[in-house]
Amino acid sequence: MMDDMIDLPGGAYRMGSDDHYPEEAPARTVIVDPFSIDRTPVTNAQFARFVDETGYITTAETPPRAEDYPGADPAMLQAGSSLFVPTAGPVPLHNPLSWWQFSFGTDWRHPWGPQSDIAALADHPVTHVSYYDAAAYAQWAGKQLPTEAEWEFAARGGLDSKAFAWGDELEPDGQHMANVWQGEFPWGNTQADGFIRTSPVRHYPANGYGLFDMIGNMWEWTEDWYGMDRSAAVSQPCCTPRNPRGGSEDASRDLNDPGAQFGRKVLKGGSHLCAPSYCQRYRPAARYPQTVDTSTSHIGFRCVRRPE
Question: How confident is the model at residue 295, as a pLDDT?
């Protein structure tokens, strides 16, 4: 099912939000051209086929180079990835290092630690993939990664200016519509939806375009460099932006971050770790910056194909 894609007509829609996090503003009208997009995120089974055919080695399976991380503890320059580990009880929510750890030997084949495997997770989204890994898969598949504008158009499913991909209620009539965190983050997941980690990619209802998991389960990589200055994207009386793109690689860097030498791409969609009590980013307008070298247990991707 490598080409299980949905053809989308493109068109005008309201991108962003003025009602949630500041980086989503301003809401503005944009136009995207027609494109096709994967019906689901790329699964472990699909990524395994890519690796089997190409011999590709992911970022998480490659020891970091000391020259890329000046000042790093040499003991940390081992292959691995960022792994979510729930805390034993309530902790201040301003320090993500309370629940994230760099886990040696954790990668897409070993998603929940070096002793884990994906034997029962073939239809779950692949995890622990960096932007480089996602882009390599897309190239192999004859596809591309979506722009932020394309991704958000697809996620909305034809519903303009709604908070969620299905309307304005998180759980309409008590129905779980996406794999997100229930309970107190990062320690008290009630698993009311039946999942504490990832879920199969077709478990929750598809959106209005027939796309699965556009919200929750995994954050998804896009092609766009992250930026906060959206002035160039705001509609002017003369015209509506068409196929808008993000900022520059240089402007995307966070100079206060130890990984400032790496640019940051836009992630979309939220994940199974987004909760009403923390990170309410399980919405089409939500966006988050992530350095291109980073892989985690809650980031995946899907691909698009544009007409030639």
Answer: 98
Amino acid at 255: L
Please give the sequence-ordered ranges of beta strands (E in DSSP) within 9-140, or none if there are none: 11-15, 28-32, 35-38, 80-84, 100-104
Distance between start and end Cα atoms, the chain: 22
Please say whether the beta carbons of 121 and 198 come within 8 A. yes
Q: Which amino acid is at 195?
A: F
Q: Which residue stretches of the chain are H helix?
A: 44-54, 131-140, 148-156, 249-252
CA atoms within 13 A on the CB side of 93: 11
Look at residue 231 and tell me whether its pLDDT is greater than 80.
Answer: no
Ramachandran category for residue 36: left, alpha or beta (phi over 0 → left; psi -120 to 50 → alpha):
beta
Pairing status of strand 299-300 against strand 219-225:
parallel
- Indicate the residue type of 3: D
Q: What ranges make up the beta strands (E) of 226-282? A: 264-268
Q: What does the mean pLDDT of the chain come to?
A: 94
267-286 tens-digit pLDDT = 999 999 999 989 999 999 99
Q: What is the pLDDT of residues 18-29, one digit of tens each?
A: 999 999 999 999
Structural tokens at position 232: 């160039």
Q: Coil, strand or helix: which one is 7?
A: strand
Q: Provide the whole-model pTM.
A: 0.96
On the 0-12 / 13-18 / 19+ scale of CB atoms within 10 A, 245 is: middle
- d(CA 149, CA 259) in angstroms, rounded, equals 26
- Distance from C-alpha of 44 to C-alpha of 201, rounded to nearest angstrom: 10
